[in-house]
Structures are given as structure tokens and as C-alpha cells.
Amino acid sequence: MNAAFGSAANPYSKTSNSVSVFLLRKYRKTSARAEVGIFVPRKRRDFVSQTQLLSFHGIPCTDPLVHEIVQRQSHKTNSSDACPKPSSSSFHPMFLEEAYERCKDICAEYAKTFYLGTQLMTEERKKAIWAIYVWCRRTDELVDGPNAVHLSSAVLDRWEERLDDIFNGRPYDMLDAALAHTVHKFPLDIKPFKDMIEGMRMDTRKNRYANFQELYLYCYYVAGTVGLMSVPVMGIAPESSLSTQTIYNAALYLGIGNQLTNILRDVGEDASRGRVYLPQDELAKFGLCDEDVFSRKVTEGWRELMKEQIRRARFFFDLAEEGANQLHKASRWPVWSSLMLYRMILDSIEDNDYDNLTKRAYVGRTKKLMALPAAYAKALSSPRATLPCQSC
């Protein structure tokens, strides 16, 4: 699903298991895992210039997309414009409890580490996050699940109609009911949900990306949107000094970084389906083409390409990491867990000598469990306002 929900096993697709969105430490290049970078100070209340920073890296600016979602969700927070409350018959307390329990079970099975991280959240928030996770997973499975062979544009159109029904208080089934209750309780806007469905449409009609600008937009649709869905539920720390827009940007960037990591992890698996997500112009830059991906031969050119791709993913994690501790304190742990474990996937690719064509980068259960206390310690930190800028 979406890279934004994070860490755990069974990434049911290119979009990862990643619900959240944020981040961890500044670091300089002292090894293959620490990137050369320049640190640009930031004004107290905002990132230096997100537009200049992203433009410097040749990244299309999605600020207008994020700004629209921030404005719409903020309006819901500050007004009585809530989604229609589902009928009492649909939301009998026992029915609703079972609906959330099912969402919990699905999250615990397919996103184990992230699920553990949600245990510190308030009861209301963790139920909402489970409901969002399940909807994202079901959306992703339309394209990458066992019945994907039967997928048509009509299926996605019907799924979007069901989404409209959810936001209008008319859930189709029990899992939809959990999300319908969530969007009534929290100031969630429908746009990032619709954008994710658009990302699924992209997957049905496009399996090559000419350049990173095209790939970035895809990553926004299938993974960056998860972060934008999650911020209203996770909440922003009262003591945060950053603007709401900045925190949403951080959510987006974690989703982008997670999705780029999924792509690198799954290169071999995607090749078997005839998909190549790596930018075509960057393959050519290192003397490579689709046939080199399909042949699964790890050459020096491939290793250099992978080093560049890993640098880019880490760049997005660095951009995003400031947002983690701007969230409500009880919501930070799953975000930090996601960030740290996705970084470990990149480390694993390096440990495999950049062979992600015949080997799948893997973070073992022991390493995952060992990362949880470190993520928890990060989650206890107070919000700060310094942003590393690195060249990727």
C-alpha cells in the first residue's frame, strides 16, 4: 500500500506500509550510509524555502496540492463542516467496535512494527489510524492483490463511488463503516483519498517513468497522500513552532522517501511483472536500459545508479524528519519506527552490495524489535526547529 504506513512485513505493493510521515537525525558523509550534505539553517518558524530547496534537486513542487488539502482540513477543524454522521443503525456501538477490531487485526497482521507503535496513541486516534491503514491497503490490493488481473477502470470508478459514500455517511461494509466513523470524528478531507485512487489508475496505464519529475508525482499519489490523511488524526503538538503547512510537507516527504525505498527494494519483483519504476533518463545516464534490469546483472553502472537512488531517498527522509516531533507526543512512536526501519532497508541494499535485482533487502525481526526502543526515545524529544538540507 503505501509507503507511508511504514515498516512492517508484507508490503503488499509498491506503495508501502507507511502511515505516517517523518523523521530522524542529521548526518554527514562518513561512510556509504551517511551522505555528503550542506546544512542550511532555517528560520525559526518555517523551512528555509521548500520551493528553492526542492527546485535545487530538480523536484517538482507539490506545495499547491498540499496547501489545498491543509486549507480544506483546517476549515473542517475550525468549523462545523463535518462529514455526515452515519445512521445510528449503521453505527450500533457493538457493530462499530467489531469494525475497528477487524481493522486492528489487519494492521497487526500486515504492519506488525507499525501496529506496535500505535499502542501509545489514544484509543480514538489509534482506531482511526487502523481504519485509514485498512482502506489504503484495500485500495492498493485492487492493483497488486490476488484479484488484480480482473482490474478495470470500472472497478476503480466503483471504488471511488464507495469512497464518496463513506464520506457521506453511507458505508458499504463493516470496514468502510470504521472509516466513515473516523472521517466524522476527525477533520479529514476526501482529496488525499481520491488522489490515492488516481495513483492506482496510474499503475494500470503506466509502467515506465521518463524522469524523476514523473516518478515524484506517482509517489505523491500512492504514498505521500497517506501522510496527508494521517496528520489530522495524529495531531500536532501544542508546543510546535512550525506552521501547519510545514508539518504537512514533512508528512508528504516521508511518504515520498518510503515509496522510493519500496521501489528500490522491489526492483527485481517489479521486473518480473514488466514494470520498471526507475527513471529512464537516470538509467541511461549510467549506460543502462530496461534490458539490464530484466537481465538482473549487477554491474558497476548499476551500483552507481543505486548509490544515487539511495542518496535521494535519504534526502527525503532528512527533509521529513523534522515533522515527527511536531506531532502530538502520543502519536510520534509509529512515525519514528517507520522512518528508522525504512532507513534500515536502504542499509540492507548496501549490505547486499547493491544487488536488489536478485536479492530482496530485508530487515530481520530482531533488528526491527531493537529499533523500537530507539524510536521511542526519539519520540520523547521536544519539538525543535532546525532542518538539514542535503544535496542528493
TrEMBL record:
The chain crosses the membrane at residues 215-237. The keyword Transmembrane helix applies. Keywords: Carotenoid biosynthesis, Isoprene biosynthesis, Membrane, Transferase, Transmembrane, Transmembrane helix. Pathway: Carotenoid biosynthesis; phytoene biosynthesis; all-trans-phytoene from geranylgeranyl diphosphate: step 1/1. Gene3D superfamilies: Farnesyl Diphosphate Synthase (1.10.600.10). GO terms for cellular component: plastid. It catalyses: 2 (2E,6E,10E)-geranylgeranyl diphosphate = 15-cis-phytoene + 2 diphosphate. Its EC number is 2.5.1.32. One of its GO terms (biological process) is carotenoid biosynthetic process. It holds the Pfam family SQS_PSY. It comes from the Eukaryota. GO terms for molecular function: 15-cis-phytoene synthase activity; geranylgeranyl diphosphate synthase activity; squalene synthase [NAD(P)H] activity. It is an enzyme of class 2 (transferase). The keyword Transmembrane applies. Belongs to the phytoene/squalene synthase family. This is 15-cis-phytoene synthase. It comes from Sesamum alatum.
